[in-house]
Design goal:
It contains 14 helices and 22 strands. By secondary structure, it is an alpha/beta fold. Strands 1, 2, 3, 4, 5, 6 and 16 form a seven-stranded mixed sheet that branches. β12 and β13 form a beta hairpin. α1 packs parallel to α9, α3 packs antiparallel against α5 and α3 packs across α6. The radius of gyration is 24 Å and the shape is globular. It starts with a strand and ends with a strand. The structure holds flavin-adenine dinucleotide. The site of flavin-adenine dinucleotide has 38 residues, from β2, α2, α3 and α9.
C-alpha cells in the first residue's frame, strides 16, 4: 500500500493549490484526476465560455460599427471554427499549465484515473490502493440532465458538449434561463444563430431580484432572443431534422422548433461514483457532501472543497475553500466559510456584478435598510462607450451604515462591484466610499453619487 501525507481527489480549483501547499511544505501528496486537468472552469466552464463571450462581443461591436463611426464592408459573419480554435487555445493553455505545474512539484505524485474510497482512509485508483490520514475531495459537478420525456430520443447539448461545437446552429433552443443558459444564449445570438430560451419559472434568473430579471430580459430580447417563460412539463422530440421542445407555456404555441437544444438546467455534484458510503461520508438529499464551517466532513481527516460541498458553485468559492483549509491546517488559523460574503457575476454583456444580500434576503432579514438605484444611462463612462443598459443598486443597513448588498448590471459591473465588496469586508460604513475621490471617467466614480440618493427600503 502507498502511504501519503495527503491524497487529493480532483484537480478543480482547490485541489492543485492544496497539492502545491503540501508538497512545498515537504509532505508527500498524491493527486488524482480522471479526466482533464483543471476541471470544469478550465475545460468546460469559465475560461472557455468567457473566451467565447469575448468573440461574441467583438462581433457585436463590429455590427454596431456605424454608431462608432466605422464600416466593416459587408455583413459580419462569424467563423465558428476559428472561434472554437481560439477558445481551445486559451483553455488548452490553462489545462496544460495545471498539469505541468503539478507534475513539476517535488513530493507530489500525479495519478490519472478514477478514484474511489475503499474505506475512510484508503483510496483505490487503477487497481492501486493509496492511504493517507488526510484526504481532500475536490470532484466538482456536472450538468444536470433531467429525465424529461424524449430525452433519450433527441441529441442534446450540455455546457460540456457545447465546447466541441464548431458550426453555427441555425436555431439554438436553450432550456434554462439562468446564468449558464443566458451566457450561451446571448453568445450564440451574437454569433448569428436564432435563439430561444425556454424557462420553467415565471422569469429569467429567478434567484435574482425582479428588477434584475426584468432588465436582463430586456437586454437579451433587444438582441432578438425569444423567451418562453412558465414552460411546464418540457419534453423533447425529433422534428423536421431538428428538435421540438414542447413547453405548454402560458402564451405562444406549445412547441418551440429548433435545430439544436442546449440543456442548461442546473448542475449536480460528482458524488455518486466515489464510494462515499464505504468511507462513511454523508451527503445531503441533493448529493452534496455535508461539511462543517471549516469544510470538514463528519469523518475526521476528510475535507470536501469546491462545488461538491454545496457551499458555492464558483471558481472563486472553490479557491476560497482551498485558502480556508490551507490556512487552518498550515497556519493554525480559524477561517470559516461563513466569513465570506456572497459575490459573483453573470457574464452576459453588459455583465451583472453582485455582492451581499438580494432585496428579497434583506426583506426576509427584517433589517432596517436604505436603497439607492441609478440607471447606467446617466453614467458618463457608459454613454461614452455607447453601452448604457442596466443600473446600479446599493442597499445599506440604516443603523450600522454598512453595505448589505449591491448589484451592478452594466458596463464594467463585474469589476466595479469589488469596490463595494471590499468595503463590506472591511466592515466600514458606506460613507468611506462617499468621501473617496475616484478616477474620472469610470463607472466607479458614480458610486458616491448613487449613495447620495439613499432612501428607505420599501
Ligand atoms: C458553463 C459554465 C460557466 C461557468 N462560469 C463561471 C464563471 O464565470 N465564474 C465562476 O466563478 N464560475 C463559473 N462556473 C463554475 C465553475 O466552473 C466551478 O464552480 C469551478 O470549476 C469549481 O469547480 P471545483 O473546484 O469544485 O471542481 P471542478 O473544476 O469541477 O473539478 C473537479 C475535477 O474532479 C475530477 N473528478 C471527479 N470525480 C473524480 C474521481 N472520482 N476521481 C478522480 N477525479 C475526479 C473531475 O474530472 C474534475 O476535473 C461555470 C461553470 C460552467 C459549467
Amino acid at each position: 500500500m502507498n502511504k501519503y501525507d495527503a491524497i487529493i481527489i480532483g484537480t478543480g480549483q482547490a485541489g492543485p493549490s492544496l497539492a502545491a501547499r503540501f508538497a512545498t511544505a515537504g509532505m508527500t501528496v498524491a493527486i488524482i484526476e480522471r479526466h482533464k486537468f483543471g476541471g470544469t472552469c478550465v475545460n468546460t466552464g469559465c475560461i472557455p465560455t468567457k473566451t467565447m463571450v469575448a468573440s461574441a462581443y467583438a462581433a457585436h461591436v463590429a455590427r454596431r460599427g456605424a454608431l462608432y463611426g466605422f464600416a466593416v464592408g459587408g455583413d459580419v459573419r462569424v467563423d465558428m471554427k476559428r472561434v472554437k480554435a481560439r477558445k481551445d487555445e486559451v483553455s488548452g493553455r490553462s489545462n496544460k499549465g495545471v498539469e505541468e505545474w503539478l507534475r513539476g512539484l517535488n513530493n507530489c505524485r500525479v495519478i490519472q484515473g478514477h478514484a474511489r474510497f475503499q474505506s475512510s482512509h484508503t483510496i483505490v485508483v487503477n487497481d492501486e490502493v493509496l492511504q493517507a490520514d488526510k484526504i481532500f475531495i475536490n470532484i466538482g459537478g456536472r450538468a444536470s440532465v433531467p429525465a424529461m420525456p424524449g430525452i433519450g430520443e433527441v441529441p442534446f447539448l450540455t455546457n460540456s458538449s457545447m465546447m466541441e461545437v464548431d458550426f453555427l446552429p441555425e436555431h439554438l433552443v436553450v432550456v434554462g434561463g439562468s446564468y449558464i443558459g443566458l451566457e450561451f444564449a446571448q453568445m450564440y445570438r451574437r454569433f448569428g444563430s436564432e435563439v430561444t430560451i425556454v424557462e420553467m419559472g415565471p422569469r429569467l434568473i429567478g434567484r435574482e431580484d425582479k428588477d434584475i430579471s426584468q432588465a436582463v430580459r430586456e437586454i437579451v430580447e433587444n438582441e432578438g432572443i425569444r423567451i418562453r417563460l412558465n414552460a411546464k412539463c418540457i419534453s423533447l422530440a425529433k422534428r423536421d431534422g431538428g428538435v421540438a421542445v414542447h413547453t405548454e407555456c402560458d402564451d405562444g404555441p406549445p412547441d418551440v422548433l429548433g435545430s439544436h437544444v442546449l440543456l442548461a438546467v442546473g448542475r449536480i455534484p460528482n458524488t455518486h461514483d466515489l464510494g462515499l458510503d464505504r468511507a462513511g461520508i454523508a451527503t445531503d438529499e441533493r448529493g452534496y457532501i455535508v461539511v462543517d464551517d471549516q469544510l470538514q466532513t463528519k469523518v475526521p481527516g476528510i475535507w470536501a472543497l469546491g462545488d461538491c460541498n454545496g457551499r458555492g458553485a464558483f471558481t472563486h468559492t472553490s479557491y476560497n475553500d482551498y485558502e480556508i483549509v490551507a490556512d487552518n491546517l498550515f497556519n493554525a488559523d480559524h477561517r470559516r466559510v461563513s466569513d465570506r460574503i456572497q459575490a459573483y457575476a453573470l457574464y452576459i454583456d453588459p455583465p451583472l456584478g453582485r455582492c451581499g444580500m438580494s432585496d428579497a434576503e434583506i426583506r426576509k432579514s427584517g433589517r432596517p435598510a436604505l436603497i439607492a438605484k441609478y440607471p447606467m444611462v446617466r453614467v458618463s463612462r457608459a454613454f461614452e462607450k455607447g453601452e448604457t443598459q442596466g443600473f446600479i443598486k446599493i442597499c445599506i443597513d440604516a443603523e450600522t451604515k454598512q453595505i448589505l448588498g449591491a448589484a451592478i448590471l452594466g458596463t464594467g459591473g463585474d469589476e466595479v462591484i469589488h469596490v463595494l465588496l471590499d468595503v463590506m469586508y472591511a466592515k466600514a460604513p458606506y460613507t468611506v466610499i462617499q468621501r473617496a475621490m475616484h478616477i474620472h471617467p469610470t463607472v466607479a466614480e458614480y458610486l458616491p453619487t448613487v449613495l447620495s440618493k439613499l432612501e428607505p427600503f420599501a
